Amino acid sequence: MNITIVGAGNVAWHLAQALQEAGNTITAVYSRTLANAAELAIRLPGAAATDSLNFSNTPADIILIAVPDGALADVAERMKVQPQTIVAHTSGSQPVSVLQTIAAAGVGVFYPVQTFSKRVPVNMQQVPILIEGTTNDATSRLQQLAQTISSKVGLVNSEKRKQLHLAAVFACNFTNHLLGISRELLAQAGLPSDLLQPLINETISKAAAHHPFTVQTGPAVRNDQNVIHEHLQLLRDSPELQEIYRQLTRSIQQNRKL
Amino acid sequence: MNITIVGAGNVAWHLAQALQEAGNTITAVYSRTLANAAELAIRLPGAAATDSLNFSNTPADIILIAVPDGALADVAERMKVQPQTIVAHTSGSQPVSVLQTIAAAGVGVFYPVQTFSKRVPVNMQQVPILIEGTTNDATSRLQQLAQTISSKVGLVNSEKRKQLHLAAVFACNFTNHLLGISRELLAQAGLPSDLLQPLINETISKAAAHHPFTVQTGPAVRNDQNVIHEHLQLLRDSPELQEIYRQLTRSIQQNRKL
């Protein structure tokens, strides 16, 4: 298929190259900053770099928009596309309706459930791609395109995608923050920052193999009041961390009672 | 060295076998339940199984106690050992002083920073083992013993070990709980429980390679009030999860301002 990519950031970078390698043709790469578009386009033989959102002369079966969530509505409003083109965004948190202003053959969502950095290679075959379309044709063309790069393609509507995003905030954003707090506590104690890494890796791998609630360990689930009290004492200079500690301890104990 | 193991649970199971494989001799395995001691001892040629804490006739350079934290003080009080023996516990959360009632040549701590399950093999060489001793001799003998099974042996006193344990509660116990919440949210949405696994793995691996605070993503760090509000709406039937969401969002935003 002929694909145009709007955006030249981390998601665009990985998607464009995976799609090209899978035999699709990238016709153009857009970025607000032409140099950024060119940096990606140069890796995609035949792709033009552009800083214009007027694609009425650019042949594309599908245009994928991979811009920051906050820029999505604005980009959608300014975009001009050929009438037979399907347009999809790649965001986990935005509904498909944010694209409704585009005069296209259909709009949709093409959401790779992964975090990308330009320099870190990703095995796209293992990345789930969640598809939604406003027409049967849009849905099926987006699904076909996704299947050229991933073996894990599913249909998920905007409401469910929002619930997935919420689950990801707990599993990834909040988890990352707790790992950051832990790193700070190690630094305060003058301990090496990687001392807990084998334990963290084992915890994550156990939580993948079982329901995490069934393999919960630590003072909260044992209701070890002495240790809990000592930990709160150690956190006495940081009421914010004390409050997080109390709250998560309580939450673990509520599950324990179930 | 001649080693006696008190306990036959997950930690005892892995330590005893690793120590034996490294050329040490396990002279005895204790468990409150003789059959449990026997189940481990049978895997250790020459080891006796016992349900008695009287080791005054059991030759041992070092006795390692690997029992639940709550049982430690009681076991220590009831133990009888030969006067030249060193006794150490394997707990991350307990001070060395819990062993002070034992009439031994010295007491200490031999703490492997890892979570163990009998059925899951562990590469002990990569497991940090943290040593503390009440005498120079105890410290150096425990350190030597640890070095027979791990390449990551360090000296850490009880105060620092307590801080490490606190950091581990954030990085592992709390993280596991958030992964459990995320799993429940996926189930509520009728989505597959492994849908976020590639994203979780990438998040953890990024958090290991960088300080997690510098690679934080998601609505909190972007201060995306629309998404935050929608997520709190999705959690409206669970005030507890709403409160965790608010608290961690606030905490992420406070770090953002630094």
Notes on the structure:
The structure is a homodimer of 258-residue chains. Chain A has 258 residues and is of the alpha/beta class. Chain A folds into two domains: 2-156, NAD(P)-binding Rossmann-like Domain (Rossmann fold); 161-257, ProC-like, C-terminal domain (N-(1-d-carboxylethyl)-l-norvaline Dehydrogenase, domain 2), CATH 1.10.1040. The first copy, chain A, contains nine helices and eight strands. The first copy, chain A, has helices at residues 10-21, 34-41, 72-78, 136-147, 158-188, 197-209, 219-222, 225-234, 239-257; strands at 2-6, 25-30, 48-50, 62-65, 86-89, 106-112, 129-133, 153-155. Chain A has an eight-stranded mixed beta sheet with strand order 3-2-1-4-5-6-7-8, with helices on one face. In chain A, strand 2 (25-30), helix 2 and strand 3 (48-50) form a beta-alpha-beta unit. The N and C termini of chain A lie far apart (52 Å). In chain A, 49% of the residues are buried. The interface between A and B is large, with 86 and 87 residues.
